[in-house]
Write a structure and sequence with these properties.
By secondary structure, the protein is an all-alpha fold. The chain has 4 helices and no strands. The protein has helices at 2-7, 9-28, 31-63, 68-71. The longest helix has 33 residues, at 31-63. It is elongated, with a radius of gyration of 31 Å. It starts with a helix and ends in a 43-residue tail after the last helix. 2% of the residues are buried.
Length: 114
């Protein structure tokens, strides 16, 4: 799970740079820059907060053992045996999206605006 912590570094640097820019803007007495850098710092810190919560959730999930029902399928693609030969496809069932063109006496119907 260290890969997620490594990916948090750019956002931490971004928040740190935004705080440094806030200090510069305060020294220059530029209120609009202070507000814009505060918003940038809040955005970066919010991203860090969501990454930290994701990291804690992933660590929590990794600590739990897999469910017993899924144990037999770990690393295996299940093979299903379809041995039922009673269905022939001629029972009168029509699959969805199937259009039977033979049910009409007109083969070509021009577009009509009603």
């Amino acid at each position: 799970m260290d890969f997620l912590l490594e990916k948090m570094d750019p956002m931490a640097r971004r928040a740190k740079a935004a705080v440094a820019e806030i200090e510069k803007a305060i020294a220059e007495k530029d209120m609009s820059s202070v507000i814009s850098h505060i918003l940038a710092a809040e955005n970066a810190l919010q991203m860090l907060k969501s990454d930290a919560s994701l990291h804690s959730q992933l660590v929590q999930k990794a600590d739990t053992s897999p469910t017993p029902a899924a144990d037999r399928f770990l690393g295996v693609i299940p093979q299903y045996q379809n041995t039922d030969i009673q269905f022939t496809g001629l029972e009168g069932e029509t699959p969805l999206g199937f259009s039977r063109h033979g049910r009409s006496n007109r083969h070509f119907t021009p577009h009509r605006v009603v």
